[in-house]
From TrEMBL:
Protein's recorded name: GAF domain-containing protein
Ranges of residues in domain GAF: 22-161
Pfam families in the record: GAF_2
Organism, as annotated: Pararhizobium capsulatum DSM 1112
Ranges in coiled-coil conformation: none
Domain of life according to the entry: Bacteria
Family: Belongs to the free Met sulfoxide reductase family.
InterPro entries from the UniProt entry: FRMsr_CS, GAF, GAF-like_dom_sf, Phosphatase_reg/MetRdx
């Protein structure tokens, strides 16, 4: 049985290092990408402060992201590539950090309470598999330290999972 540990770190870098260590332990000896996504979403949602949504969208053959495991309120089920923050991250093949989603052209509001968003594409062997999506009710919640931390977590998840 895996038990999470509350993280009390002096810096975001230390926080994400501790979170990555817990994630590595959680993913150890499990290769199923759905099971791993469910546990990543739960771990992140419970340990990262000021989130109102944490989860995954997976890319399907018809250039549509489809909702995967998540924590938070019900969510949009399908997002076309190139639309919204999630679809934009896939189209650009890069992380998108949006301090104010209301100022983002084409933002898809699944939860009206969300004010900022961080979306990390999941890439394996040059192929985009989906995204890790994080929403916060606080404007400006995410910064470059959060981006680096979540990019490292996403890389751990991709390396630990069979797609």
């Amino acid at each position: 049985m895996f038990a999470t540990t509350t993280i009390e770190a002096e810096s975001k870098t230390a926080f994400y290092g501790d979170l990555a260590a817990q994630l590595a332990g959680l993913l150890h000896d499990e290769r199923d990408f759905i099971a791993n996504a469910a546990n990543v979403a739960a771990l992140v949602f419970n340990l990262v402060p000021d989130l109102n949504w944490a989860g995954f969208y997976f890319l399907k053959a018809n250039d549509v992201l489809v909702l995967g495991p998540f924590q938070g309120k019900v969510a949009c089920v399908r997002i076309p590539v190139g639309k919204g923050v999630c679809g934009g991250a896939v189209a650009r093949r890069q992380t998108m950090l949006v301090p104010d989603v209301h100022a983002f052209p084409g933002h898809i509001a699944c939860d009206a309470a969300s004010r900022s968003e961080l979306v990390v594409p999941l890439i394996k062997d040059g192929q985009v598999l989906g995204v890790l999506d994080l929403d916060s009710p606080l404007p400006g919640r995410f910064d470059t330290d959060d981006q680096a931390g979540f990019e490292a977590l996403a890389a751990l998840y991709v390396a630990a999972s069979d797609f």
